[in-house]
Amino acid sequence: MPKDMLTFTKVAQDYPTKRPAEERDDDFLEISRPFIVDKAEEQASRCSQCGVPFCQVHCPLHNHIPDWLMLTAEDRLQEAYEMAASTSTMPEICGRICPQDRLCEGNCVIEQSGHGAVTIGSVEKFITDKAWDEGWVKPIRPVRDRSHRSVGIIGAGPAGLTAAELLRNKGYSVTVYDRYDRGGGLLTYGIPGFKLEKYVVGRRLKRLEEGGIEFRYNFDVGTDATMDELRETHDAILVATGVYKARELQAPGVGTGGIVPALTYLIASNRKGFGDEVPAFDSGKLDADGKRVVVIGGGDTAMDCVRTAVRQGATSVKCLYRRDRENMPGSAREVQNAEEEGVEFVWLSAPTAFEDKEGEDGQKIVSAVRGTKMKLGPPGPDGRRQPEPGGEEFREDADIVVMALGFSPEDLPTMFGVPDLGITRWGTLRTDHKTLMTSLDGVFAAGDIVRGASLVVWAVRDGRDVAASMHAYLQAKDAEEKVAA
Predict the structure, then answer these.
(1) Low-confidence residues in the chain, pLDDT < 70
(2) What are the structural domains of the chain?
(3) By CB neighbour count within 10 A (0-12 exposed, 13-18 middle, 19+ buried), where does 377 fall?
């Protein structure tokens, strides 16, 4: 064991310094200042190098966390980066947006002993950003030429991009199709810049393009090409579209103007950050400036919405959630960040109806949210206590209401024109648990469109797994053709 490690008894936990709320609440830059080398090495040295690394066990990618922490503490930063990159295609992105408090850091052994977890995510971000700065992130160089086999990937989110990179590394010809005009999926359009600045995603995309992966944007499968046409073009297909359909609330007045889905709101904001023309934002419909904003929901998307509204200049921002703080699905750190920035949380509150008024154009727009206070009953199947009506009613004035209730799958069999594409009772794509292939031969699926709305790190894991399955499938095709010849 190097002498640099196990310093947790004398070195306190220390995260990168956050910019003050009054400084950061009017821009979309990341809120934490980066570690300097000495601080990253100091914090990495706190790792206890335990025999059973629960941080690694609870990481969906099973990253070799103790190993790259040790390398960081020893000032072997390039080796630390290479170790982190050996299991993850997006370590600097996961380091920024993973809910480490629920995964690796939340299961750190020294956290359980009361010394405060190792700041794993911050170190991961540091060593990978350092790698980009120093030129340690190498170009994609296929191990051999397998370009006689072509792969089509539908969806340029984290699962699709991960599979694209790994399959290109194997030498396959890879084409990525996406409905949007930029790659990255929710990394680009769903997550605000204060959590993930867009240059971070852009440099990953540029590396993939320079590595020989073709991207075809503004491409709708089912319209610009049918699934059957893509299957004729490629030897294997991956569906990694994610889940984008907003879950809806059934309540009087829910269709009133000014009530918007979370993703619609976030995409508009992110597009403005890119300098795009966004008529709905420019008209004020999706701009919270000077308005009272109510966000309904308690996940990370809701936190993205409330913190975006603050930066747009809302006069007040409230988050209504039907459970309490302890039973909230979103990251505790994000709740803290939001509170620091002036967001008010209205716990144990569920909307029941929406009031309206006449807008300047004569159309009805939302004016208030009516609701009822809740109480918590026994735990449900997910272990969280279930909300029940408590009886007391309330009213919150609102000019914009953002619905952040989660996402469901779109009807891909209909959209893609393939009714025999099998789905589950939840609408996600049904795959073979071993091969990850759908009901269509040579068509695989991965990410949220299989597991439902989940974390980016799980999408990366799924992309890694499906790339291995697709490689095996294509190798088997080569072997069959060789025998037939």
Answers:
(1) 1-3
(2) 21-134 (1.10.1060.10), 146-243+409-484 (3.50.50.60), 249-406 (3.50.50.60)
(3) exposed
